[in-house]
Design brief:
Strand content: 35-45%
Strand order of the largest sheet: 1-7-6-5-4-3-2
Number of helices: 4
Distance between the termini: 40 Å
Oligomer: single chain
């Protein structure tokens, strides 16, 4: 299933990426979150900044769902490869559940809209290869991802407001 999310910000692309990598912004995202975010690895590969993050939700899955995916929680890791020169981040999810049956990958880019504004664009593909229910799982995952990015955008706008006040 295709993923396409767009959020606009009152900042330049350079200001957006500065915010995106700021520890204070990460702390703001963590406040009130029901998902623990832990950086597992950070390194440089040539011109790329690579970051691997583990996401662990507080909430456990319903028993029936947990038995299908083989896990009580949807714990997963995401590997981000950021090319600062091109202003694009490539992401790939490395799930701890549905081994070999779930793939999710895409990009985050920031488009200059002029007048000190930009748009963050998240594109990707999420595929769940499970007979009969794969499509429903894909829709649920996409809905959660969209909700998560909407919260991130709201927090990002607040972060920027605090810095321009």
């Amino acid at each position: 299933m295709k993923l396409n999310i767009r959020h606009e910000y009152d900042c330049t692309p350079a200001q957006f990426w500065t915010m995106y990598w700021d520890d204070e912004f990460a702390a703001m995202l963590q406040e009130g979150s029901t998902v623990q975010r832990d950086i597992v690895d950070e390194r440089t590969e040539g011109a790329l900044s690579v970051q691997r993050i583990r996401f662990t939700p507080d909430q456990e899955l319903p028993t029936a769902v947990a038995s299908i995916i083989g896990s009580k929680k949807l714990v997963y890791e995401q590997e981000n490869k950021y090319d600062a020169e091109k202003g694009i981040l490539h992401w790939e999810v490395v799930p701890s559940f549905l081994p070999g049956k779930l793939t999710a990958a895409g990009t985050v880019r920031v488009e200059d809209l002029g007048d000190g504004r930009c748009a963050q664009i998240i594109d990707g593909d999420i595929k769940v290869n499970v007979s009969f229910i794969g499509g429903r799982i894909e829709k649920a995952v996409v809905a959660e991802v969209e909700k998560s990015w909407a919260k991130t955008a709201e927090t990002g706008r607040e972060y920027l407001r605090q810095r321009t006040a």
